[in-house]
Amino acid sequence: MHTPLKSNIASDTPSLAIRARGLRKVFSHPISGVVAAVDHLDLDVPSGICFGLLGPNGAGKTTTLRMLLGLMPPSAGSLELLGLPMPQQSRRIRPRIGIVPQADNLDPELSVAQNLRVYASFFGLPQQISKPELDRHIERLLEFARLSERRDFRVESLSGGMKRRLTLARALINSPDLLVLDEPTTGLDPQARHTLWSRLEELKAQGTTLLLTTHYMDEAERLCDELVVMDHGRILDQGSPQALIARHVEPWVIEIRSAGRQTTAFAPLSSLGKLERHGSSLFLYTHDRQRALNDIDGLTASLPTPPVLLQRPSGLEDVFLRLTGRDLREEA
Questions:
Q1: Residues in Cβ contact with 60 at an 8 Å cutoff, skipping those fewer than 6 apart
Q2: Which 8-state DSSP code applies to residue 106?
């Protein structure tokens, strides 16, 4: 499988793909007054890694992305992308960035290959490279996206997974140094998600910097070398998925389902770790899994209906909930 090749369009990338200091964005609200959507954010994203921005709805992720892409000026602070100040040098920066938006905005009336060719014209590629070279570049992208056999199909005939792969291929038409992915696998089935993940891992191995926002914690845990968890416009913590898991949660989670009114019967388990209730279930985060299971057996022996137990290693989702809470957030 050939991946898209870096062309002479992109210049050398500095050690930091993104550098932000004191980045802030405020909005005026008729009731709340001045609201800080992003509040003094400091961010260093090394080149060549996958970096994640995680947070609940309203955390400030979208506002941060819009400032990074030059779509919204910051209220305060400084921002550099690929070694250049943004928004002052946005015209030089934008040709070196690829964007995979949340929603596909492909042209449904055009074929798969025509979508790539039209997008190439937005970057002036037909004037910069020869037609045979552009044709080969498009063919490489089609092969990379596993769409070679669909090159002449209209977009409206494609499945959701195919459209997402085409959107990714389109974002690579300018051989970007930085690829921004805004919830790239939302709505995809497991097979399509894994296919897209493998394509992203190939790009990272090639040296492309990936900036990822996602609500799928397994996706972030698999793809991200480093990430931040945001809420209320601030960074709550930063590190690799493994480091954040080790720092914030115990290594094992035991879920006691349908604990219901029997919650008090399990109160002694709090001596073995952190005991949390959500809905009708109890969650025990513990270092001593075997002792916890033994104690639960003893506590449930006299219950008329023993609860269902689920056990697993703790993960990034547990970190996310520990830092941001379990309350449902409305769409911002």
A1: 25, 37, 38, 39, 41, 230, 231, 232, 233, 234
A2: -
CB 292 within 8 A of CB 284: yes
Rounded CA separation 68/19 (Å): 10
- Does residue 98 have a pLDDT over 80? yes
**CB-based burial of residue 111 (10 Å sphere; 0-12 exposed, 13-18 middle, 19+ buried)?**
middle
pLDDT (average), residues 180-208: 94
**For residues 6-24, average pLDDT:** 73
What's this model's pTM, rounded to 2 decimal places? 0.89
282 by DSSP, 3-state: which? strand
238: number of Cβ within 10 Å: 17
DSSP code string of 21-84: EEEEEEEEETTTEEEEEEEEEEEEEETTSEEEEE--TTSSHHHHHHHHTTSS--SEEEEEETTE
Q: Tell me whether residue 235 is exposed, middle or buried, using C-beta atoms within 10 angstroms of its C-beta: 0 to 12, 13 to 18, 19 or more.
A: buried
In tens, the pLDDT along 220-237 reads 999 999 999 999 999 999
125-146 confidence digits (pLDDT tens)? 999 999 999 999 999 999 999 9
C-alpha span between 117 and 142 (Å, rounded) = 11
55, 227 Cβ separation under 8 angstroms: no
Residue type, 179: L
Query: Which secondary structure element, helix H or strand E, spans residue 191, and what is its range?
Result: helix 190-206
Gyration radius (Cα) of the chain, Å = 23
